[in-house]
Structure prediction request, 493 residues.
Amino acid sequence: MHKKQLAIGKAIVCAILTIMISANGMALANETESINRNLAISNIDAFMTNEIERLKIPGASLAIVKGNQVAYLQGYGFSSPDGTAMTAQTPVVIGSVSKSFTALAIMQLVEQGKINLEDPVQTVIPWFQLADKEASKKITIQHLLNQTSGLSTLDGQVAISQGDRTVKEHIQSLANTELTFPVGEQYQYSNLNYSILGAVIEEVTHKSYTAYIKEYIFQPLDMNNSFAGPIDDVNETIAEGYQTVFGFKMPTKQLNHEGTVASGYIIASVEDMANYMIAQLNQGQFNGTSLLSANAMNTMHHPASFAGHDTYYAMGWEVNNGVVSHNGWTENTYSKVMLDGEYGISLLINSMDYFNLNEYEAITSGINKLVHNEEPAISSGNPFIKYIVFNVVLLVILAYIVWSAYRIFKVKNPKVTMLKGIFILIFNVLIPLLILLGFPKLFGPLSVVTLFAPGIGHLLFLIPLLLLIVGVIKLSIVIVKLKKNTFGKSGVI
Prediction:
């Protein structure tokens, strides 16, 4: 009798469990169906398709989450020149969105008691040194996280093209780098801050940055198509990036960025980014796994340093009127993550268009409006008109340089006046010289400008250089002829 009762009891328990599982499954399915209905999937898809065609984007992928549920995953276009489709599983280099991963890793180490936010960097990395030895002692982990170390945006940009070394070697190369503001006084967005944090992670954990991110962030979040370096992509699934050269999209290879992964070169699929956003929206929780405490996650998202235009920098995030976000771009990819209320949006694009960066930014903003049942601003204009105008201007200037060079060597006895000499001095010597001397402030470091805007970036440097060369030759001729005409027998012409 006892065995029979036991069997009946097991049957009842199994039946109850089956009903509960079915009920949970139905509830989850109903919740997902409800989310999808509220999202107006067809409108989102139509908006994305229109923007991709209008901006001539090779490939993109989009993820939308609500609470702890994935509401939308979709790939568009292609991930490489061979026509491979871009999917939600296609990894893309996410640029400066990587900073939020680095900040998350730092906060994990803080919770483990291995470091404190107020610790000077030198207590963790004794060999850390900048040009100002006293100021170097004052920079803390928190200064780096909040972009208030005093390191400049310009030096951070230069570092993008100098990442072909290990993390330690990259940070050791900063020994002569000057601070442009006193430590802690001013917000300055600098990639160097987060590259240094990458070295902090390596020093504290005795692991490589890539190994730590993989073990303590990617794996707990089931980010199976994400890498902290292309070498880990054994199946070669990473999307090939495209750059815009004179308005045309061209596939290009990235430089080696081993030393700057922590500040801008993590690789992830949009499906994996959905899991990442769920953890961010749910106080560090993902599928029963705690990545970080609620208090630490709130600290990460808390506005810390004023960045202008109602925007504050937090820890690897920007906060504007309660919306937490961060964008990222490399030489040939673009990404953005936006956390607004209970929704999270992640957009990955395998191309970069520096001239139309605002158009790329507007895509995520448009999706966010659709998610909140608002109408996005849809542009019908041709975003490449500016390239046409710019290309025409460049051609006219190049034609003028060629014509000027031709006249130097082909025209005999050109008419020379003082007024002509002044014109050459101003437009062929002084202005080009000022452009060349002020190039970093006008356009950015030459290495970065040519990296992010190939073709046009090269001409922005080459044109004033050629104008200067031609101008110096012409001015020399004018001076010689004026002297001859002034002191010679023929008189002034």
In short: Residues 114 and 204 are 7 Å apart (CA to CA). Residues 1-6, 15-32, 489-493 have pLDDT under 50 and may be disordered.
